[in-house]
Each structure stands twice: as C-alpha cells, then as structure tokens.
Amino acid sequence: MYSKAFAPEYQGALTTLSVNSSLTDVLAEGLAQLRDAERAGSREEAARALLAVAEAHRRLGNVAEADRAWKTGYRTARSVGALGTMAWALWSGGTLARQRGFFNLAYRLLAHAADLGKRGNDVVARGYSLAGMAETGRIQGDYRTVAALHEKLLAEARRRGEARHTVWALEGIAQIHRNTGSYDTALAMFEEAAEIAAKADDQRGRAWALRGIADVLSVRDGATERALALLSEAEATCREMNLSSALAYNHKMRGNVLYRAARYDEARAVYHQALTEFEAMSEPRGTALSRLGLVKSLAHLGRDRSSTISDLAELRRTFDRIGLRHARDMADRALVEFQPTAPQPATASQRPALREVAVR
C-alpha cells in the first residue's frame, strides 16, 4: 500500500501545502513564510521557505529567481549547520542545473546533497538526491550506468510505501525501456506509475506518466488519437498547477505524436509553440529537441535539403556539447534520412514560407 503523496520540499510551516498546490500559490506562501521567518530571526525556517520559493520559481521557468533562492537558502542553512536543509537546497540547485543543461554541475550538486542528507540523517533528501543523479544520467542517455541505481531507488521507495518517489522511479526506468525499444515493458511501467499517482493524488506525477503512455502508444501502435487525448488530459493538469516546464514537454510530445502520424503541418505548429515556451524559460534541452522536430517537419513540408542538413548538423553539435547521447543519435538518423540525394518530400510550389519560424 502507498501513502498519499506528499511534497517533502515544502518544509517547516509550509508542510500544509499539497503536492498538487498551484505553483503560484506555493510561491506566494513561500515568500510570506520567508518574511515571517526573517522577522522572527529563524534562519533555518528562512532556509526552508527559500527551498519552496526556489522550487516554485524553477517549475514556473523563472531560472534566475530560482538560482538566487536556492543559493541563498543553502548559505542560510549552512550558517546554522542545518545539514538536512543544506541537502535540500543543493538538491534544488542540482535539479535546476539539470534543467538548464549543466549536467556536470548537476551531478556535483546532487552528489553533495546526497552526502549531506546521509550525514544529516535525512533519508528522503538523500533518496531524492540519488534519484536526481539517476535522472541526470538517464537524460544524457547513460542507461548502463544509472539503470541499477534507478532499480535500487524503486525498491527502496516501494519498501517505504512512498508513492511519489515510486512514481518517479517507475517513470525513469520506463523511459529507459522506451528509448531502448522495450515498448511493452515501458508501457506497463508508465501505466503502473499513472495508477499509483492517481491513487496517491499525485497529479503532477500522473501527468508525466500520461505523457509517457501517449508516447509509447504512438510509437508502438500508431494510436494517434488515443495519444493526443492522453496528452490533452495531462495538459489540463499542467495548466491547473502552472507547470510551465511540464507543459512545454507535453507540447513537444504532441508534436512527436503528430509527426509520427505524418501530420507535418500540425506538428510544425506545435513544435514552434514548444520552442517558444522552452526559450522563454532558458531550457536548452527542450529548446534543442523542439528545434529538431521543427526542422524535420519543415523538411517534410518541402524545405530545401541543404538548409535542413545544415540545421541538423548544428543541432547534432548542440546535443553533443550538452551531453545528450540519445538526442545526438536522433540527429544522426535525421541526417541520414534527409540527405540531399534522397527524394524531395514536396514540390517547390508546396514549400512553406519560413519567415514565421527562426530555425537556428
């Protein structure tokens, strides 16, 4: 049995906040608690409030504000020797670093957070930090290294009956199976994650699981309409909770589903929307992936192959620089697919105007 999902990053006076609280509400409550803690002269409570502020800003896509908040929270916690609170601040900073594409920094911060969590006897902080390290490796495509850690964390979360952490671990392992072609296993794990999240009232976790289910149904079965319906359901949750990053990734996945169904003009529009959203929050991974989908969609709509190849080569270099192995492999496959010697997908009269989309 799993307990109701909770948000351990909302600490001190903020423990009353739900895992499903709107991020704008979390930010307002965090700032109010920060003012109260500062008036009371409680540095540890101030650091706890800053953690909530940092996480709200991060998930809203406010990168600069999130960066300031976690660093201030860490320094404040360090000034009173609060190891567990320091660990949570570093977890937030490491998660932000991963979101910004700084994977080496993310590893260092999360590893330090895991160590502080252990030294401070904060089992949850240590577990979340190790999970963050596993997720960082998975995003980079280093599946062999992190698969065992994912499995270990899943077993620990199941043993404790911690629903939210179980859902995260299931989704991470499912994504590895999806990316390596084990679609049946991936689907089963995404579906289990969605079921656990629903029963534990973890709407954010369920939204991510629905996105995974939609992806597998699209790529394995070509079930376009079912996938789009699931993404619409997940999108409603993202909007209700103001999950800016999750919403952008939802839109990118919608573009993927439409692209696989050869609905290239619709895919182009959705990829462009996702690209705009990712650029607004300075999210390099999502930005590059959206551009990849956009470039491929435009190629199918008749854009000249030389421009397509040039953009794909630049994207490949971007993926290589960031350290995204799986995405780099996708760019390599696209470079083969759209070689100028291959037949053009449309006549010159069918080629779309490119003025509305800046592909860099």
TrEMBL record:
A Pfam match: TPR_12
SUPFAM superfamilies according to UniProt: TPR-like (SSF48452)
Residues covered by region (Disordered): 341-360
PANTHER family according to UniProt: HTH-TYPE TRANSCRIPTIONAL REGULATOR RV0890C-RELATED (PTHR47691:SF3), REGULATOR-RELATED (PTHR47691)
Name recorded for this polypeptide: Tetratricopeptide repeat protein
Source taxonomy: Bacteria, Bacillati, Actinomycetota, Actinomycetes, Kitasatosporales
